[in-house]
Amino acid sequence: MDAKLGTVLFGPDASEEKRKRMDKQAHETTTHETGLRLTGCQ
């Protein structure tokens, strides 16, 4: 199982384009609301 913890998906040196893309992804998944996202499970 792979879990992502935290509400910010980009580093401080990320481009503006990446910041927008990752912020959109966070709002479309459980990352924004709970700070947790399960990304893979075998």
From TrEMBL:
UniProt-annotated stretches for the region Disordered: 1-42
Entry protein name: Kinase
Keywords from the UniProt entry: Kinase, Transferase
The keyword Disulfide bond appears for this protein: no
Record InterPro entries: IPK, IPK_sf
Pfam family, one: IPK
Molecular function terms, GO-annotated: kinase activity
Annotated Basic and acidic residues bias: 15-35
Native source organism of the sequence: Cryptococcus floricola
Organism phylogeny: Eukaryota, Fungi, Dikarya, Basidiomycota, Agaricomycotina
Single biological process term from Gene Ontology: inositol phosphate biosynthetic process
rRNA-binding among keywords: no
